[in-house]
Design goal:
single chain; 249 residues; mainly alpha; Endonuclease Iii, domain 2; Endonuclease III, domain 1; 63% helix; 0% strand; globular; binds iron/sulfur cluster
Length: 249
């Protein structure tokens, strides 16, 4: 076997172990969020628009309220801009509300009220960039496509590139495309799990490598834990029961 194919095999096996650990952790630790219980493209789209630049806790307040007022895409498409703005009031970044409204109108007019299923078609809609297109395609239609937001990009960089810095956007998307499972249901869980890891464990400022399920497969985590193991705080951390561990850094 040539050196190149050997390297490819090793990389594949690391990726598979990473995915298995990530999915097992997600099954145990995922938050119970209302938009994870639906495959309705409209409801998924509303959650994705709301979650842009807004904390989950805040969206949890507004999401049910907005859907009560506009339970379907048709209702939203027919609404006056003032009513949409009122339902969004308090969530901020109102451009998202008008984009969502414009999206509903366009889908009602040109797509018979049904959101398209592919990222390529979704990206043609108002307010939909590559991430939102991937998220709607994966979370509604269970398409085996990547959805790379800031959290996911951070996790991929740290795990596979060993970098803390930003940049390399295209490389991160390529890696995400290679990693995403071919089966749509598994791809749904994988995308959700990557986001969850970035939101709960691999956080921006102080990654919690000591309690991270993929740490053995992570370039950054292995380096950070190696450094930490030499410290007294790590020894204290390891003496604590698992459920009482906070990041030792
Ligand atoms: S080991 Fe650390 S850097 Fe790597 S994914 Fe986990 S929390 Fe992030």
């Amino acid at each position: 076997m040539g050196a190149l194919s050997w390297k490819v095999m090793v990389a594949k096996s690391i990726a598979q172990r990473f995915i298995r650990k990530l999915l097992a952790w997600y099954a145990r630790a995922a938050r119970d969020l209302p938009w994870r219980k639906t495959r309705d493209p409209y409801r998924v789209a509303v959650s994705e628009f709301m979650l842009q630049q807004t904390q989950v806790a805040r969206v949890l307040e507004f999401y049910p309220r907005f859907l009560k007022r506009f339970p379907t895409l048709e209702k939203l498409a027919r609404a006056r801009p003032k009513a949409v703005r009122e339902a969004w009031d308090g969530l901020g970044y109102y451009a998202r509300a008008s984009n969502l409204h414009a999206l509903a109108r366009q889908v009602a007019r040109r797509h018979d009220g049904t959101l398209p299923a592919t990222p390529q078609e979704l990206e043609k809609l108002p307010g939909v960039g590559p991430y939102t297109a991937g998220a709607i395609a994966s979370f509604s239609f269970e398409k085996a496509v990547p959805a790379v937001d800031t959290n996911v990009a951070r996790v991929i960089r740290r795990v596979f590139l060993g970098q803390r810095v930003t940049g390399n956007v295209q490389r991160v998307w390529r890696l995400a495309s290679m990693l995403v499972p071919k089966d749509g249901k598994r791809a749904w869980r994988f995308n959700q799990a990557l986001m969850e890891l970035g939101a709960l464990i691999c956080v921006a400022r102080k990654p919690r490598c000591g309690e991270c399920p993929v740490q053995p497969h992570c370039k950054t985590g292995r380096r950070l834990v190696k450094t930490l193991r030499r410290s007294a705080s790590w020894r204290l951390f390891e003496r604590r029961p698992r459920n009482q561990r906070n990041n030792p850094q």
